[in-house]
Amino acid sequence: MTAAKDDDGHGATIHQTEVARDSKDSQHSANVDMPNGGHGSGWRVLRDGGDEDLPSAVDKDNGADLTQHGASGSSEQPFNDGLQVGNGDGGDVVFYKTYKRRWFGLVQLTLLNIIVSWDWLTFAPVSSSAAVYFNASETTINWLATLFLFSFVVATPVVIYALHVGPKPSIITAAALVLAGNWIRYAGSHSSSRGIFGVVAFGQILTGLAQPFVLSAPARYSDLWFSPKGRVTATAVVSLANPFGAALGQLIVPFWVEGPEDVSRMVLYVAVISTVCSVPSFFIPAAPPTPAAPSGQTPKLSLKESIHILTSHLEFWLIFIPFAVYVGFFNSISSLLNQIMEPYGFTDTDAGIAGALLIVVGLVAAAISSPIIDRTKAFVTWTKSAVPIIGLCYLVFVWMPGTRSVAGPYIVLSVLGAASFSLIPVVIELLVELTHPISPEVTSTLAWSGGQLLGGCFIVISDALKAGEDGTPPGNMYRALVFTAVIAMAVLPLPLCLGLFGRGDNVTLKRMRSDAGERASVASV
Protein backbone atom coordinates (compact mmCIF):
# COMPACT_ATOMS: atom_id res chain seq x y z
CA MET A 1 0.00 0.00 0.00
CA THR A 2 1.28 3.44 -0.90
CA ALA A 3 0.31 6.51 1.11
CA ALA A 4 0.35 10.06 -0.20
CA LYS A 5 0.53 13.16 1.95
CA ASP A 6 -0.96 16.48 0.95
CA ASP A 7 0.92 19.75 1.11
CA ASP A 8 -1.37 20.68 3.96
CA GLY A 9 -0.65 17.48 5.85
CA HIS A 10 -3.83 15.62 5.04
CA GLY A 11 -3.37 12.07 3.85
CA ALA A 12 -5.10 10.04 1.21
CA THR A 13 -4.48 6.33 1.26
CA ILE A 14 -4.10 4.56 -2.06
CA HIS A 15 -3.84 0.80 -2.23
CA GLN A 16 -1.45 -1.05 -4.53
CA THR A 17 -2.92 -1.26 -8.00
CA GLU A 18 -2.84 -3.99 -10.59
CA VAL A 19 -2.02 -3.19 -14.20
CA ALA A 20 -3.82 -4.72 -17.15
CA ARG A 21 -1.85 -4.42 -20.37
CA ASP A 22 -2.93 -5.16 -23.92
CA SER A 23 0.19 -6.55 -25.62
CA LYS A 24 -0.90 -5.26 -29.01
CA ASP A 25 -0.86 -1.68 -27.83
CA SER A 26 1.95 -1.89 -25.31
CA GLN A 27 4.09 0.48 -27.31
CA HIS A 28 1.47 3.17 -26.76
CA SER A 29 0.79 2.36 -23.12
CA ALA A 30 1.63 4.66 -20.27
CA ASN A 31 4.07 3.33 -17.72
CA VAL A 32 3.26 3.54 -14.04
CA ASP A 33 5.59 3.42 -11.04
CA MET A 34 4.47 0.50 -8.92
CA PRO A 35 5.60 -0.66 -5.50
CA ASN A 36 6.59 -4.02 -7.03
CA GLY A 37 9.25 -2.50 -9.23
CA GLY A 38 7.44 -1.27 -12.34
CA HIS A 39 8.15 2.26 -13.44
CA GLY A 40 7.27 4.89 -15.99
CA SER A 41 5.97 8.41 -16.39
CA GLY A 42 2.75 8.13 -18.35
CA TRP A 43 0.56 9.37 -15.47
CA ARG A 44 0.19 13.12 -15.25
CA VAL A 45 -1.41 15.46 -12.72
CA LEU A 46 -3.80 18.20 -13.79
CA ARG A 47 -3.11 21.32 -11.75
CA ASP A 48 -4.30 24.89 -11.91
CA GLY A 49 -1.06 25.94 -13.56
CA GLY A 50 -1.01 23.12 -16.12
CA ASP A 51 -0.07 19.46 -16.02
CA GLU A 52 3.17 17.84 -15.01
CA ASP A 53 4.70 14.39 -14.92
CA LEU A 54 4.05 12.31 -11.86
CA PRO A 55 6.44 9.35 -11.66
CA SER A 56 4.03 7.38 -9.50
CA ALA A 57 0.40 6.35 -9.53
CA VAL A 58 0.10 8.20 -6.24
CA ASP A 59 -1.15 11.78 -6.20
CA LYS A 60 1.23 13.93 -4.15
CA ASP A 61 -1.13 16.82 -3.78
CA ASN A 62 -4.62 16.46 -2.42
CA GLY A 63 -5.82 19.15 -4.75
CA ALA A 64 -4.92 17.30 -7.94
CA ASP A 65 -7.02 15.33 -10.38
CA LEU A 66 -5.22 12.25 -11.64
CA THR A 67 -5.84 11.28 -15.27
CA GLN A 68 -4.05 9.03 -17.73
CA HIS A 69 -2.85 10.55 -20.95
CA GLY A 70 -1.66 8.76 -24.04
CA ALA A 71 -2.62 7.59 -27.51
CA SER A 72 -6.06 6.22 -28.13
CA GLY A 73 -4.61 2.75 -28.20
CA SER A 74 -3.41 3.00 -24.61
CA SER A 75 -4.94 0.22 -22.56
CA GLU A 76 -3.03 0.24 -19.29
CA GLN A 77 -5.59 0.63 -16.49
CA PRO A 78 -5.18 0.41 -12.70
CA PHE A 79 -8.08 -1.03 -10.78
CA ASN A 80 -8.87 -2.87 -7.56
CA ASP A 81 -11.09 -2.55 -4.49
CA GLY A 82 -8.95 0.03 -2.74
CA LEU A 83 -8.34 2.50 -5.55
CA GLN A 84 -11.31 3.00 -7.84
CA VAL A 85 -10.90 4.49 -11.27
CA GLY A 86 -13.40 5.72 -13.82
CA ASN A 87 -13.56 7.30 -17.21
CA GLY A 88 -13.58 11.07 -17.14
CA ASP A 89 -14.14 13.54 -19.94
CA GLY A 90 -12.35 12.72 -23.16
CA GLY A 91 -11.63 9.13 -22.10
CA ASP A 92 -9.27 10.15 -19.28
CA VAL A 93 -9.13 7.98 -16.18
CA VAL A 94 -10.32 9.61 -12.95
CA PHE A 95 -9.12 8.38 -9.56
CA TYR A 96 -11.80 7.87 -6.90
CA LYS A 97 -10.35 8.03 -3.42
CA THR A 98 -11.22 9.05 0.11
CA TYR A 99 -9.42 11.64 2.25
CA LYS A 100 -8.63 11.67 5.96
CA ARG A 101 -10.03 15.17 6.27
CA ARG A 102 -13.52 13.69 5.79
CA TRP A 103 -13.43 12.59 9.43
CA PHE A 104 -13.21 16.20 10.66
CA GLY A 105 -16.47 17.05 8.93
CA LEU A 106 -18.07 13.81 10.08
CA VAL A 107 -17.16 14.46 13.72
CA GLN A 108 -18.44 18.02 13.51
CA LEU A 109 -21.71 16.92 11.93
CA THR A 110 -22.03 14.35 14.70
CA LEU A 111 -21.52 16.95 17.45
CA LEU A 112 -24.11 19.27 15.93
CA ASN A 113 -26.67 16.47 15.76
CA ILE A 114 -26.02 15.64 19.41
CA ILE A 115 -26.50 19.17 20.69
CA VAL A 116 -29.46 20.06 18.48
CA SER A 117 -31.34 16.99 19.74
CA TRP A 118 -30.43 17.86 23.32
CA ASP A 119 -31.92 21.30 22.65
CA TRP A 120 -35.17 19.61 21.62
CA LEU A 121 -35.55 17.77 24.94
CA THR A 122 -34.09 20.41 27.23
CA PHE A 123 -37.34 20.91 29.13
CA ALA A 124 -39.27 17.66 28.52
CA PRO A 125 -37.51 15.54 31.20
CA VAL A 126 -38.29 18.18 33.85
CA SER A 127 -41.62 19.41 32.51
CA SER A 128 -43.19 19.76 35.96
CA SER A 129 -40.33 21.91 37.31
CA ALA A 130 -40.25 23.95 34.09
CA ALA A 131 -43.99 24.55 34.35
CA VAL A 132 -43.60 25.93 37.87
CA TYR A 133 -40.59 28.06 36.92
CA PHE A 134 -42.31 29.69 33.93
CA ASN A 135 -45.69 29.80 35.69
CA ALA A 136 -47.23 27.75 32.89
CA SER A 137 -49.03 24.43 32.45
CA GLU A 138 -47.29 21.23 31.37
CA THR A 139 -49.24 21.45 28.10
CA THR A 140 -47.56 24.80 27.46
CA ILE A 141 -44.14 23.27 28.20
CA ASN A 142 -44.96 20.48 25.73
CA TRP A 143 -45.28 23.14 23.05
CA LEU A 144 -41.54 23.83 23.32
CA ALA A 145 -40.88 20.35 21.92
CA THR A 146 -43.76 20.66 19.44
CA LEU A 147 -42.57 24.02 18.07
CA PHE A 148 -39.11 22.53 17.64
CA LEU A 149 -40.51 19.70 15.48
CA PHE A 150 -42.77 21.94 13.39
CA SER A 151 -39.83 24.26 12.71
CA PHE A 152 -38.16 21.39 10.87
CA VAL A 153 -40.97 21.32 8.32
CA VAL A 154 -40.83 25.08 7.76
CA ALA A 155 -37.12 24.93 6.93
CA THR A 156 -37.36 21.91 4.59
CA PRO A 157 -37.32 23.75 1.21
CA VAL A 158 -34.29 25.83 2.22
CA VAL A 159 -32.52 22.74 3.56
CA ILE A 160 -32.92 20.84 0.30
CA TYR A 161 -31.49 23.79 -1.64
CA ALA A 162 -28.58 24.25 0.79
CA LEU A 163 -27.65 20.57 0.71
CA HIS A 164 -27.94 20.52 -3.07
CA VAL A 165 -25.15 23.12 -3.11
CA GLY A 166 -23.14 21.03 -0.64
CA PRO A 167 -23.11 19.95 3.00
CA LYS A 168 -20.88 22.78 4.29
CA PRO A 169 -23.38 25.67 3.78
CA SER A 170 -25.99 23.58 5.56
CA ILE A 171 -23.67 22.78 8.48
CA ILE A 172 -22.62 26.42 8.91
CA THR A 173 -26.26 27.55 8.87
CA ALA A 174 -27.12 25.01 11.55
CA ALA A 175 -24.20 26.09 13.74
CA ALA A 176 -25.25 29.75 13.56
CA LEU A 177 -28.87 28.93 14.45
CA VAL A 178 -27.81 26.67 17.33
CA LEU A 179 -25.59 29.38 18.79
CA ALA A 180 -28.26 32.08 18.50
CA GLY A 181 -31.11 29.88 19.70
CA ASN A 182 -29.36 28.59 22.81
CA TRP A 183 -28.21 31.96 24.07
CA ILE A 184 -31.63 33.50 23.38
CA ARG A 185 -33.19 30.70 25.43
CA TYR A 186 -30.82 31.46 28.27
CA ALA A 187 -31.60 35.17 28.06
CA GLY A 188 -35.30 34.35 28.31
CA SER A 189 -34.90 31.92 31.18
CA HIS A 190 -32.58 34.25 33.11
CA SER A 191 -34.86 37.28 32.91
CA SER A 192 -36.62 38.72 35.94
CA SER A 193 -39.85 37.20 37.25
CA ARG A 194 -38.58 33.69 36.63
CA GLY A 195 -38.08 34.00 32.91
CA ILE A 196 -39.98 35.15 29.86
CA PHE A 197 -41.53 32.11 28.22
CA GLY A 198 -42.04 33.83 24.85
CA VAL A 199 -38.31 34.56 24.52
CA VAL A 200 -37.47 30.96 25.41
CA ALA A 201 -39.97 29.74 22.82
CA PHE A 202 -38.36 31.96 20.15
CA GLY A 203 -34.94 30.53 20.94
CA GLN A 204 -36.42 27.03 20.80
CA ILE A 205 -37.80 27.75 17.32
CA LEU A 206 -34.34 28.82 16.13
CA THR A 207 -32.81 25.57 17.37
CA GLY A 208 -35.66 23.74 15.67
CA LEU A 209 -34.85 25.49 12.40
CA ALA A 210 -31.24 24.32 12.81
CA GLN A 211 -32.08 20.64 13.12
CA PRO A 212 -32.99 19.82 9.49
CA PHE A 213 -29.75 21.33 8.23
CA VAL A 214 -27.75 18.67 10.09
CA LEU A 215 -30.24 15.81 10.47
CA SER A 216 -30.78 15.64 6.69
CA ALA A 217 -27.08 16.03 5.88
CA PRO A 218 -25.62 12.54 6.59
CA ALA A 219 -26.73 10.92 3.32
CA ARG A 220 -25.46 13.89 1.30
CA TYR A 221 -22.19 14.02 3.22
CA SER A 222 -21.49 10.29 2.93
CA ASP A 223 -22.37 10.35 -0.78
CA LEU A 224 -19.83 13.14 -1.32
CA TRP A 225 -16.97 12.00 0.94
CA PHE A 226 -17.24 8.21 1.36
CA SER A 227 -16.94 5.19 -0.91
CA PRO A 228 -19.79 2.64 -1.15
CA LYS A 229 -18.06 0.44 1.44
CA GLY A 230 -18.37 3.06 4.19
CA ARG A 231 -21.53 5.00 3.44
CA VAL A 232 -23.97 3.11 5.65
CA THR A 233 -21.63 3.32 8.64
CA ALA A 234 -20.94 7.03 8.05
CA THR A 235 -24.65 7.76 7.71
CA ALA A 236 -25.36 5.70 10.83
CA VAL A 237 -22.78 7.52 12.96
CA VAL A 238 -24.22 10.95 12.19
CA SER A 239 -27.91 10.00 12.04
CA LEU A 240 -27.75 8.15 15.35
CA ALA A 241 -25.91 11.02 17.01
CA ASN A 242 -29.24 12.84 16.96
CA PRO A 243 -31.08 10.41 19.24
CA PHE A 244 -27.90 10.07 21.30
CA GLY A 245 -28.23 13.78 22.08
CA ALA A 246 -31.81 13.12 23.13
CA ALA A 247 -30.57 10.35 25.43
CA LEU A 248 -28.07 12.72 27.03
CA GLY A 249 -30.84 15.24 27.58
CA GLN A 250 -33.17 12.63 29.10
CA LEU A 251 -30.46 11.32 31.40
CA ILE A 252 -28.49 14.42 32.44
CA VAL A 253 -31.10 17.18 32.68
CA PRO A 254 -33.00 15.59 35.62
CA PHE A 255 -29.75 15.52 37.62
CA TRP A 256 -29.19 19.22 36.95
CA VAL A 257 -32.72 20.25 37.90
CA GLU A 258 -33.70 19.31 41.44
CA GLY A 259 -36.34 22.04 41.59
CA PRO A 260 -37.81 24.96 39.61
CA GLU A 261 -35.02 27.30 40.72
CA ASP A 262 -32.46 25.18 38.79
CA VAL A 263 -34.08 25.57 35.36
CA SER A 264 -32.19 28.72 34.30
CA ARG A 265 -28.82 27.30 35.32
CA MET A 266 -29.56 24.12 33.34
CA VAL A 267 -30.30 26.19 30.22
CA LEU A 268 -26.95 27.96 30.68
CA TYR A 269 -25.09 24.65 30.83
CA VAL A 270 -26.69 23.52 27.58
CA ALA A 271 -25.84 26.86 25.92
CA VAL A 272 -22.16 26.51 26.86
CA ILE A 273 -22.02 22.96 25.50
CA SER A 274 -23.73 24.08 22.28
CA THR A 275 -21.09 26.77 21.78
CA VAL A 276 -18.25 24.27 22.11
CA CYS A 277 -19.96 21.93 19.62
CA SER A 278 -20.84 24.62 17.06
CA VAL A 279 -17.78 26.83 16.59
CA PRO A 280 -15.57 24.29 14.71
CA SER A 281 -18.28 24.00 12.03
CA PHE A 282 -16.98 27.12 10.30
CA PHE A 283 -13.65 25.43 9.53
CA ILE A 284 -14.68 22.13 7.92
CA PRO A 285 -13.64 21.44 4.28
CA ALA A 286 -16.34 22.02 1.68
CA ALA A 287 -15.73 19.06 -0.65
CA PRO A 288 -13.06 16.47 -1.48
CA PRO A 289 -10.56 17.42 -4.21
CA THR A 290 -11.52 14.29 -6.16
CA PRO A 291 -14.71 12.21 -5.96
CA ALA A 292 -14.92 9.24 -3.61
CA ALA A 293 -16.96 7.11 -6.03
CA PRO A 294 -18.61 7.40 -9.47
CA SER A 295 -22.06 8.03 -7.97
CA GLY A 296 -20.67 11.02 -6.10
CA GLN A 297 -20.17 12.86 -9.38
CA THR A 298 -23.25 11.51 -11.19
CA PRO A 299 -25.41 14.46 -12.34
CA LYS A 300 -28.40 14.64 -10.00
CA LEU A 301 -31.95 15.53 -11.01
CA SER A 302 -33.37 18.96 -10.26
CA LEU A 303 -35.74 19.38 -7.32
CA LYS A 304 -38.74 19.75 -9.63
CA GLU A 305 -37.87 16.57 -11.52
CA SER A 306 -37.20 14.74 -8.27
CA ILE A 307 -40.55 15.62 -6.72
CA HIS A 308 -42.35 14.65 -9.94
CA ILE A 309 -40.72 11.20 -9.90
CA LEU A 310 -41.25 10.62 -6.17
CA THR A 311 -44.99 11.33 -6.31
CA SER A 312 -45.49 8.20 -8.42
CA HIS A 313 -42.64 6.11 -6.97
CA LEU A 314 -44.48 3.33 -5.09
CA GLU A 315 -41.40 1.95 -3.34
CA PHE A 316 -40.62 5.41 -1.98
CA TRP A 317 -44.05 5.63 -0.35
CA LEU A 318 -43.88 2.07 1.02
CA ILE A 319 -40.78 3.17 2.94
CA PHE A 320 -41.55 6.84 3.57
CA ILE A 321 -44.92 6.35 5.29
CA PRO A 322 -43.82 3.87 8.01
CA PHE A 323 -40.53 5.74 8.51
CA ALA A 324 -42.36 9.03 9.09
CA VAL A 325 -44.88 7.38 11.41
CA TYR A 326 -42.29 5.56 13.52
CA VAL A 327 -39.99 8.59 13.75
CA GLY A 328 -43.04 10.64 14.72
CA PHE A 329 -43.96 8.23 17.50
CA PHE A 330 -40.35 8.11 18.70
CA ASN A 331 -40.43 11.91 18.97
CA SER A 332 -43.78 11.81 20.73
CA ILE A 333 -42.82 9.09 23.22
CA SER A 334 -39.49 10.79 23.95
CA SER A 335 -41.16 14.15 24.56
CA LEU A 336 -43.96 12.77 26.75
CA LEU A 337 -42.23 9.86 28.51
CA ASN A 338 -42.06 11.77 31.77
CA GLN A 339 -45.82 12.43 31.67
CA ILE A 340 -46.57 8.86 30.53
CA MET A 341 -44.82 7.29 33.52
CA GLU A 342 -45.28 9.79 36.39
CA PRO A 343 -49.02 9.09 36.98
CA TYR A 344 -48.11 5.49 37.85
CA GLY A 345 -45.64 6.50 40.57
CA PHE A 346 -42.43 6.69 38.54
CA THR A 347 -40.00 9.55 39.25
CA ASP A 348 -38.34 11.95 36.81
CA THR A 349 -35.16 9.90 37.17
CA ASP A 350 -37.02 6.65 36.37
CA ALA A 351 -38.45 8.22 33.23
CA GLY A 352 -35.06 9.66 32.31
CA ILE A 353 -33.40 6.25 32.58
CA ALA A 354 -36.19 4.72 30.47
CA GLY A 355 -35.61 7.32 27.77
CA ALA A 356 -31.87 6.79 27.94
CA LEU A 357 -32.29 3.00 27.58
CA LEU A 358 -34.51 3.53 24.56
CA ILE A 359 -31.68 5.38 22.88
CA VAL A 360 -28.47 3.86 24.26
CA VAL A 361 -29.50 0.25 23.57
CA GLY A 362 -30.55 1.39 20.11
CA LEU A 363 -27.17 2.97 19.51
CA VAL A 364 -25.37 -0.21 20.54
CA ALA A 365 -27.56 -2.28 18.22
CA ALA A 366 -26.94 0.14 15.36
CA ALA A 367 -23.19 0.10 16.00
CA ILE A 368 -23.25 -3.68 15.58
CA SER A 369 -25.64 -3.87 12.64
CA SER A 370 -24.41 -0.98 10.47
CA PRO A 371 -21.01 -2.48 9.52
CA ILE A 372 -22.74 -5.79 8.74
CA ILE A 373 -25.22 -4.09 6.43
CA ASP A 374 -22.39 -2.08 4.89
CA ARG A 375 -20.84 -5.36 3.79
CA THR A 376 -23.97 -7.32 2.87
CA LYS A 377 -26.14 -4.49 1.47
CA ALA A 378 -29.19 -6.39 2.79
CA PHE A 379 -31.25 -3.19 3.07
CA VAL A 380 -34.63 -4.66 2.15
CA THR A 381 -34.22 -7.80 4.27
CA TRP A 382 -33.23 -5.78 7.33
CA THR A 383 -36.16 -3.40 6.85
CA LYS A 384 -38.66 -6.25 6.63
CA SER A 385 -37.19 -7.83 9.77
CA ALA A 386 -37.10 -4.71 11.97
CA VAL A 387 -40.48 -3.15 11.18
CA PRO A 388 -42.64 -5.93 12.74
CA ILE A 389 -40.58 -5.72 15.95
CA ILE A 390 -41.14 -1.96 16.13
CA GLY A 391 -44.89 -2.29 15.63
CA LEU A 392 -45.21 -5.00 18.27
CA CYS A 393 -43.18 -2.97 20.79
CA TYR A 394 -45.57 -0.03 20.48
CA LEU A 395 -48.45 -2.45 21.00
CA VAL A 396 -46.98 -4.09 24.11
CA PHE A 397 -45.91 -0.74 25.63
CA VAL A 398 -49.59 0.21 26.04
CA TRP A 399 -49.72 -1.89 29.23
CA MET A 400 -46.19 -1.33 30.56
CA PRO A 401 -46.64 1.85 32.67
CA GLY A 402 -49.58 0.16 34.41
CA THR A 403 -47.30 -2.54 35.78
CA ARG A 404 -45.84 0.10 38.12
CA SER A 405 -42.50 -1.70 37.84
CA VAL A 406 -39.52 -0.32 35.96
CA ALA A 407 -38.70 -3.74 34.46
CA GLY A 408 -41.54 -3.77 31.91
CA PRO A 409 -41.01 -0.28 30.44
CA TYR A 410 -37.23 -0.69 30.49
CA ILE A 411 -37.30 -4.00 28.57
CA VAL A 412 -39.85 -2.96 25.95
CA LEU A 413 -38.21 0.42 25.33
CA SER A 414 -34.80 -1.25 25.01
CA VAL A 415 -36.09 -3.65 22.33
CA LEU A 416 -37.91 -0.79 20.60
CA GLY A 417 -34.72 1.26 20.57
CA ALA A 418 -32.63 -1.60 19.18
CA ALA A 419 -35.04 -2.23 16.29
CA SER A 420 -35.67 1.45 15.54
CA PHE A 421 -32.11 2.71 15.63
CA SER A 422 -30.64 -0.11 13.60
CA LEU A 423 -33.27 0.67 10.95
CA ILE A 424 -32.73 4.44 10.66
CA PRO A 425 -29.48 4.49 8.60
CA VAL A 426 -30.70 1.51 6.56
CA VAL A 427 -33.87 3.32 5.50
CA ILE A 428 -32.04 6.56 4.73
CA GLU A 429 -29.55 4.73 2.49
CA LEU A 430 -32.25 2.50 0.96
CA LEU A 431 -34.25 5.56 -0.11
CA VAL A 432 -31.14 6.95 -1.78
CA GLU A 433 -30.42 3.63 -3.51
CA LEU A 434 -33.93 3.08 -4.85
CA THR A 435 -34.40 6.65 -6.10
CA HIS A 436 -30.93 7.25 -7.62
CA PRO A 437 -30.09 9.58 -9.43
CA ILE A 438 -32.33 11.76 -7.29
CA SER A 439 -29.94 13.65 -5.01
CA PRO A 440 -29.65 12.13 -1.50
CA GLU A 441 -30.67 15.30 0.31
CA VAL A 442 -34.12 15.25 -1.31
CA THR A 443 -35.25 11.87 0.00
CA SER A 444 -33.50 12.16 3.37
CA THR A 445 -34.90 15.64 4.05
CA LEU A 446 -38.43 14.64 3.04
CA ALA A 447 -38.25 11.49 5.18
CA TRP A 448 -37.06 13.35 8.27
CA SER A 449 -39.48 16.20 7.62
CA GLY A 450 -42.38 13.75 7.57
CA GLY A 451 -41.22 12.28 10.86
CA GLN A 452 -40.89 15.67 12.55
CA LEU A 453 -44.28 16.86 11.26
CA LEU A 454 -46.04 13.73 12.48
CA GLY A 455 -44.09 13.90 15.74
CA GLY A 456 -45.47 17.36 16.43
CA CYS A 457 -48.98 16.24 15.51
CA PHE A 458 -48.72 13.13 17.69
CA ILE A 459 -47.64 15.22 20.70
CA VAL A 460 -50.67 17.48 20.29
CA ILE A 461 -53.04 14.52 19.83
CA SER A 462 -51.54 12.59 22.75
CA ASP A 463 -51.82 15.62 25.02
CA ALA A 464 -55.49 15.94 24.04
CA LEU A 465 -56.06 12.26 24.89
CA LYS A 466 -54.52 12.68 28.35
CA ALA A 467 -56.90 11.73 31.16
CA GLY A 468 -58.19 14.39 33.52
CA GLU A 469 -57.92 14.53 37.27
CA ASP A 470 -60.81 12.06 37.49
CA GLY A 471 -58.83 9.43 35.57
CA THR A 472 -57.41 6.24 37.06
CA PRO A 473 -54.74 7.21 37.82
CA PRO A 474 -55.23 10.98 37.34
CA GLY A 475 -53.50 12.40 34.26
CA ASN A 476 -52.68 9.00 32.75
CA MET A 477 -51.96 8.72 29.00
CA TYR A 478 -53.37 5.22 28.39
CA ARG A 479 -55.60 6.41 25.53
CA ALA A 480 -52.63 8.13 23.89
CA LEU A 481 -50.66 4.87 24.01
CA VAL A 482 -53.59 2.99 22.45
CA PHE A 483 -53.67 5.56 19.64
CA THR A 484 -49.93 5.06 19.13
CA ALA A 485 -50.27 1.27 18.96
CA VAL A 486 -53.16 1.32 16.47
CA ILE A 487 -51.37 3.60 13.99
CA ALA A 488 -48.04 1.77 14.41
CA MET A 489 -49.66 -1.58 13.59
CA ALA A 490 -51.67 -0.10 10.69
CA VAL A 491 -48.55 0.95 8.73
CA LEU A 492 -46.61 -2.23 9.52
CA PRO A 493 -47.60 -4.13 6.32
CA LEU A 494 -46.37 -1.41 3.93
CA PRO A 495 -42.60 -2.12 3.90
CA LEU A 496 -43.32 -5.86 3.91
CA CYS A 497 -44.71 -5.40 0.39
CA LEU A 498 -41.35 -4.26 -1.03
CA GLY A 499 -40.37 -6.41 -4.00
CA LEU A 500 -43.66 -8.32 -4.07
CA PHE A 501 -46.35 -8.53 -6.76
CA GLY A 502 -43.88 -8.65 -9.62
CA ARG A 503 -41.97 -5.53 -8.52
CA GLY A 504 -38.69 -7.23 -7.63
CA ASP A 505 -36.77 -5.12 -10.14
CA ASN A 506 -37.95 -1.97 -8.37
CA VAL A 507 -35.92 -2.75 -5.24
CA THR A 508 -32.64 -2.89 -7.14
CA LEU A 509 -29.90 -0.85 -5.47
CA LYS A 510 -29.45 1.65 -8.30
CA ARG A 511 -26.61 3.68 -6.83
CA MET A 512 -24.61 0.54 -6.09
CA ARG A 513 -25.27 -0.64 -9.63
CA SER A 514 -24.05 2.72 -10.93
CA ASP A 515 -20.78 2.40 -9.02
CA ALA A 516 -20.33 -1.24 -10.06
CA GLY A 517 -21.12 -0.42 -13.68
CA GLU A 518 -18.52 2.34 -13.76
CA ARG A 519 -15.83 0.03 -12.44
CA ALA A 520 -16.85 -2.71 -14.85
CA SER A 521 -16.69 -0.35 -17.82
CA VAL A 522 -13.17 0.68 -16.86
CA ALA A 523 -12.02 -2.91 -16.41
CA SER A 524 -13.31 -3.84 -19.86
CA VAL A 525 -11.39 -1.09 -21.67
TrEMBL record:
Biased composition (Polar residues): 69-78
SUPFAM superfamilies: MFS general substrate transporter
Keyword field: Membrane, Transmembrane, Transmembrane helix
InterPro entries registered for this protein in UniProt: FLVCR1-2_SLC49-like (IPR049680), MFS (IPR011701), MFS_trans_sf (IPR036259)
Cellular component terms (Gene Ontology): membrane
Membrane topology recorded in Swiss-Prot or TrEMBL: Multi-pass membrane protein
Subcellular location: Membrane
Entry GO MF terms: transmembrane transporter activity
Segments of skewed composition (Basic and acidic residues): 1-10, 18-27
Membrane spanning residue stretches: 103-121, 141-163, 194-215, 236-257, 263-286, 307-331, 351-373, 385-402, 408-432, 481-502
Chief localisation class: membrane
Region listing for Disordered, in residue ranges: 1-83
Entries under Gene3D superfamilies matching the protein: MFS general substrate transporter like domains (1.20.1250.20)
Pfam family, one: MFS_1
UniProt cross-references to PANTHER family, sorted A to Z: MAJOR FACILITATOR SUPERFAMILY PROTEIN-RELATED, SOLUTE CARRIER FAMILY 49 MEMBER A3
Name of protein: Major facilitator superfamily (MFS) profile domain-containing protein
Organism: Coniochaeta pulveracea
Classification of source organism: Eukaryota, Fungi, Dikarya, Ascomycota, Pezizomycotina
